[in-house]
Design a protein that fits this description.
The protein has about 100 residues and is mainly alpha-helical. The chain is built from 6 helices and no strands.
């Protein structure tokens, strides 16, 4: 954050630091961005490709379908919402019983 602020306020920071200080700040900021990008890529690869629960891959991207167990484990709130909507739709379509 500090390196970004130094680069953002270039004129002010050049008055506080030397050109060497600004260049060092820019270099640190550059490598910090590379490190952050690599961290995001590794995190994404783990959760999409190398996750032991889904290895070798989750087929949902091919089929568009997911098992109820996977849905419960990965998207429990959405599953509850789907079940509530199904129950409401079932109530609406249920014929009235004669007494």
């Amino acid at each position: 954050a500090l390196t970004g602020a130094i680069m953002w306020f270039e004129n002010t920071s050049m008055g506080l630091f030397t050109k060497l200080g600004w260049d060092i700040s820019r270099t640190i900021h550059f490598y910090e961005a590379i490190l952050a990008t690599l961290a995001i890529i590794v995190w994404h690869f783990y959760f999409v490709i190398f996750n032991p629960d889904m290895y070798p891959m989750n087929l949902a991207w091919l089929t568009g379908k997911i098992s109820e167990k996977e849905m419960l484990d990965e998207h429990a709130l959405e599953l509850d919402d789907i079940k509530k909507r199904e129950a409401e739709a079932e109530k609406k379509n249920k014929p009235a019983t004669e007494e």
